[in-house]
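Note to self: the last two entries modelled the partners one at a time, which told us nothing about the interface. This time every component goes in together.
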Amino acid sequence: MIETGARRREIDEVASGLFHANGYAATSVRDIAKALDIQAASMYAHVSSKEDVLFSIVEAAATAFERSAAAATADVSANDPVDRLAALVEAHVEVITADPERSSVFVTEWRHLSPGRRDAIGTRRDAYEARFRSTIEDGLAIGAFHATDAALAATFLLTALNGIATWYRPDGRLSGDRIADHYVDLALRALSEDHR
Amino acid sequence: MIETGARRREIDEVASGLFHANGYAATSVRDIAKALDIQAASMYAHVSSKEDVLFSIVEAAATAFERSAAAATADVSANDPVDRLAALVEAHVEVITADPERSSVFVTEWRHLSPGRRDAIGTRRDAYEARFRSTIEDGLAIGAFHATDAALAATFLLTALNGIATWYRPDGRLSGDRIADHYVDLALRALSEDHR
DNA sequence: CGACACTCCTAACGATCGTTAGGTAGGAGG
DNA sequence: CCTCCTACCTAACGATCGTTAGGAGTGTCG
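The predicted structure of the combined assembly is written out below.
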């Protein structure tokens, strides 16, 4: 019985901001309620536990990353590993800059999920990371990428990308698009054999 | 009156492991005490608050990063920006892999410090990041690095490097040295004009 | 009009939090 | 032997935690 009403979405939105700013464990149900101008007990008309709120946020973020990556690589022009990696990087940056708070909660707070839910998200994270890794492996196979450890290179890239969620500010010096451009360039240069 | 006895150091060590595994806010003083086989109240014979323990860990980590970077760039051969960046990356990876728990607490939990201490650490972090940024700027000035946004490139690199603290395991597939080698390579390729 | 769903309230529950007070056992140094 | 110090103990403090129980107001739909 998952509630999807407007108030329920407001809870996720407000909680994302607080979890992002202070962390899940340091944010109380009363903090979230206060931001919504209601009593803590009233939260339980919409959610069944604090962890449910975290899961809902993390779930939505995971889905956003998956959908964005799938859409970016569905493009027929993304058959070339170099183009595909560029598309993956760009898609990842776009998801983060579109909702940095939700994204940073996804990246940093998922360990506070219950074991079952944590495992489920972990599996999806592994599959997502595998998109990057196998793209790098494909590039290595055709000689487009410089010989390296594909798994390590994927981790290098993804941690750099996820870091954006921790420092990005919508009113900052660089727009999401500019960051995406720069990060695509850095990623391709780090890996390509002749990307100049 | 900062205590520096053996027991005090044990507290930092045990607390680093717990803060790394569960986060500062989700770790209780009783958790730390239990890992030391003493009562929670007995902790206060050695520390004056839970936050003191966090600060002590973060402080030590900050000093380790600063010292390692200073030693790496003191080398006369590090006058070339490319060599200097390589030395900075290698030094950073070494500090992390030498004590990943302390490093990850430094990277992820410092926001739970009191405002004054947080600011002090923030200033030191900024200075440390400036080492990377100015090295990149120096490389740009002599044409050794591909034209890019130096501040953004430094952030890209540092977040990728700090990510190591979150996934590195001493008994993992790759040794700290191997990781350092790969990351130096990825960093120089990402930035250099002709690093092949 | 009546039923129902939605949203929020007050009050309170037991658990756990960081921390303090006050005391004791054991070893070191005079 | 006596004193001091270190390291630990039991007991408890007030605060805050996530959560439940039970009720009330409001709007919608038949």
